[in-house]
Write a structure and sequence with these properties.
The complex is a heterodimer of chains A (188) and B (272).
Chain A lengths: L14 H8 L11 H5 L10 H9 L11 H4 L5 H5 L6 H15 L7 H16 L4 H12 L9 H6 L13 H11 L7
Helix pairs in contact in A: 1-6, 7-8, 7-10
Chain B lengths: L1 H10 L15 H7 L1 H18 L3 E3 L2 H16 L1 H11 L9 E3 H9 L1 H7 L8 E5 L8 H4 L9 H8 L3 E2 L18 H17 L4 E4 L2 H18 L7 E3 H8 L17 H8 L2
Parallel strand pairs in B: 1-2, 3-4, 3-5, 5-6
The chains are: A mainly alpha (188), B alpha/beta (272).
Chain lengths: 188, 272
């Protein structure tokens, strides 16, 4: 694995911030690459979990915020489960995502951040997910209006998607949670 | 999944009580966004269950994982506990027992009682048991079965008279959380899983998570379209298979909702 290191002096390391957000001690990693071997998406992405760890070690990381693995990672936690040092690699990934959205590196406009916002917005409003509103919000934002539309009639007929919003949830409790914890404005 | 869970529970004498006002766990979107949000959303439901003096039974692996992870974080980190208390407006200690339905079926109801209640058999139907990722991982949080080679669902399928296959993709992730946002990635992942099940000789895939179910079932249409691989493998939630063997009519088990026809499974059971 060759790692290209930028000579750009302005490139800042993210080690400290990632450790703070994730609560993970990154110095534990000795590059055995067990995380990468088990990762279901590292062969599809341009970066791997072990490379991500190494870049952070080397005092780099800014470039990771724009890396495709951040939003291809399926949060399956295989990496965290298999790490012989017990490092929660998935938590490091979550920390990088938060930093990416916060700093606008992913501009918060990639498909996954957009999906997350559309998903959480329906939870914030209805207390539970409302698929139809979530799908509409996501499609309008992403411009992928036609994706999966061929399945819609069948899904509605089979009542896999409800037309009406969910009712019965303790909406007040959920709104309070969003108000108190909303940090990145991700669900606004 | 919902319908078949309720029907099967009733048949086996499990009384399920829905917590009034339960709310969404926040799922993957929650933990990718904010640590405190990801702990507080499940906690909102967990305090309701605590007030009822009950345990929480979950039949979705993803919700199960988030509920367990929230308990783990709240009980293990005073700062998270304080943050959650502030968000909820009351303290919660992370102590409500969270269990997956599969555990309740195997450990509380027990295989003997299930066997006695059976009316039908799967008659040796070859079943690939798929656990997915979040039921078994990370194991120090969920504490469910062996994280690399789980066998609880295989045990249930064997009791039902099915042949639980040895196959390597039991806990490979199907990418359910990215099904809409990164369909490209998910078609690759589901193709590998369903393809491996087919290769192992499976006539059906049994799952313990509704997210995996919809993803493995529905994305077979996209795999056929974009990769030309047609598997036609029905994907059934565990209570749908169990319900059929308890003699419940297919229409009461939500089997009509599947995209890939479960006809092969119905034929096997009807022949018994």
């Amino acid at each position: 694995m060759a790692i290209t290191i930028s000579r750009d002096k302005s490139a800042r390391g993210l080690l400290k911030e990632v450790q703070e957000i994730s609560g993970v001690d990154l110095s534990q990693c000795y590059q055995c690459k067990k995380c990468t071997s088990g990762c279901p998406v590292s062969s599809l992405a341009r970066c791997s979990p072990s490379e991500m760890m190494r870049r952070l070690h080397l005092g780099l990381g800014e470039e990771l915020l724009a890396s495709d693995i951040l939003w291809m990672c399926v949060s399956c936690e295989t990496c965290s489960t298999r790490c012989p040092m017990g490092i929660d690699v998935a938590a490091v990934m979550d920390a990088l995502r938060k930093l990416a959205v916060r700093r606008g590196a992913a501009k918060g406009e990639g498909n996954v951040p957009l999906f997350n916002r559309a998903f959480l917005k329906t939870v914030q409003v209805f207390g539970r997910t409302y698929d139809l509103a979530m799908i509409a919000g996501y499609k309008l934002g992403s411009g992928k209006l036609l994706a999966d539309t061929e399945k819609f009639p069948t899904m509605l007929r089979k009542r896999k998607i409800a037309l009406l919003p969910p009712h019965g949830a303790d909406r007040q409790a959920v709104r309070r949670i969003f108000k108190k914890t909303r940090e990145d404005g991700a669900a606004q | 999944m919902d319908q078949s869970t309720r029907t099967v529970a009733e048949k086996l004498g499990i009384q399920l009580i829905e917590p009034k006002g339960w709310t969404c766990c926040g799922a993957t979107a929650g933990h990718q966004t904010d640590r405190l949000l990801a702990a507080a959303l499940p906690a909102a439901t967990l305090v309701k269950v605590q007030d009822m003096g009950l345990e929480l039974v979950v039949n979705c692996a993803a919700c199960y994982n988030r509920m367990k992870a929230a308990n783990h974080e709240i009980a293990g980190d005073p700062q998270v506990r304080a943050g959650v208390a502030d968000a909820l407006g009351r303290d919660y200690d992370g102590s409500v027992e969270v269990r997956h339905l599969l555990e309740v079926l195997l450990n509380d109801v027990g295989t003997d009682a299930i066997e006695k209640a059976l009316h039908q058999s799967l008659r040796g139907l070859k079943v690939a048991c798929y656990y997915g990722c979040l039921l078994v991982r990370p194991s120090e949080v969920t504490g469910f079965d062996d994280p690399e080679n789980p066998s609880s669902l295989d045990r249930l399928v064997t009791v039902l008279g099915g042949t639980a296959l040895e196959w390597p993709h039991k806990t490979e992730c199907c990418g359910g959380g990215l099904s809409m946002s990164r369909t490209d990635v998910v078609v690759n992942l589901t193709d590998a899983i369903v393809g491996m099940a087919k290769l192992a000789g499976a006539e059906c895939i049994a799952v313990s998570c509704p997210m995996c179910q919809i993803n493995l079932d529905m994305r077979q249409l996209d795999i056929a379209k974009s990769k030309g691989n047609r598997y036609d493998l029905p994907v059934l939630y565990l209570t749908q298979l169990l319900g059929l063997c308890l003699g419940v009519a297919p229409q009461r088990l939500g089997l009509n909702k599947l995209m890939i026809s479960p006809a092969k499974v119905l034929q096997a059971v009807a022949a018994a």
